[in-house]
User: Fold these one by one.
Assistant:
Number 1:
Amino acid sequence: MRLRSLLFVPGDRPERFGKAAASGADAVILDLEDAVTADAKPAARAAVRDWLGTPAGVARFVRINPIETPFVADDLDALVGVLPDAIMVPKAEGAATITLLDAMLHERGLANVKLLPIATETPAAMFQLGSYAAVADRLTGLTWGAEDLPAAIGAATSRNDDGSYTAPYELARSLTLFGAGAAGVAAIDTVFPALNDAAGLAAYAARAARDGFTGMMALHPSQVAPINAAFTPDADAVERARAIVAAFAANPGAGALRVDGRMVDAPHLKQARRILSFGG
């Protein structure tokens, strides 16, 4: 499953589901957590269940409520028989959370549904990012958030005046990237909240792709196309990747080669194959 763009839509706004599906996003995240008040959660579950029961032409994820809340059992009950493509797990605290949730999923016949943990929303979660490798077979990726963690520790903000992250949240972002790499799953960057800042979004998404993230979450359909563009290798990158792969195929015993005047070796070959798996 390719996950360049994952678009959030509130679970209690079924009139937006079709627009989200038509946005070009690789996945739509139907939110039963933060976007839905407690009183609206029953109606949201019903709307999500109804939509999951019909074809949509897009991968559909469901963000449930945290496993320690009284809402999660009803969230999972609503998914029985309709099988979303994945479940987003908020407030995840490493492999232990995935193991606990797995038991709840098994009870409901949902054991094969993949999971996407939001891996940095509590202080304890920060110390568990390396543990996801032990449950990698249950994951479709790993992502992070920059809002709940500062609230949990009493920080005024997660960002500097220019919009960049302060040091603690750069650490959270980096550890998510490395945790995903250790688990061998997709690394999904967090949302860009400034909906009217197209240039800022493009720069943020380009940075994420440069750093090794494979996709990014979105808050509005207008953000989908720029995100998809950032995580789709351009023609020059694909052409160079093909040249590197072809050079090593023609010289299978070589440890390093010259391609277009530059020395390349095993890490470059690995990256070239990764680029071709995305866009070539």
Number 2:
Amino acid sequence: MANHSVDPAAPDEQYLAFWRERHLCTLTTLRPDGSPHVVPVGVTYDAETGLARVITNVTSTKVRHVRTAGAEGARVAVCQVDGPRWATLEGRARVHTEPDRVAEAVRRYAERYERTPGPNPARVVIEIEVERTLGRG
């Protein structure tokens, strides 16, 4: 893994492997006053499509922050840390409610975290179009 910037179009295998390991992550969104809102989440990263995904409840604060940004999406970051290793994905987030998108996010979550979430009719997915990747291995 690189020492700082990682090419989002061609992340190395070490960086991708770190995103497949089971790690709790954080999602940072911005409140209306511009201050950061940081919460623990599970994140999956699909480098081929350039998408990171977070499943959550439609009534969550993070969903409200993303939706407040409008159609252009909210600027967000997700990060994970394991000792001296860390990785951050930055990009534009949008909330999706389509059943196929939510199901794909749940499938990926179950694969990474080795646990299938129970049914939740209020579940949505926050999809992040990754624009910048950072890390240190």
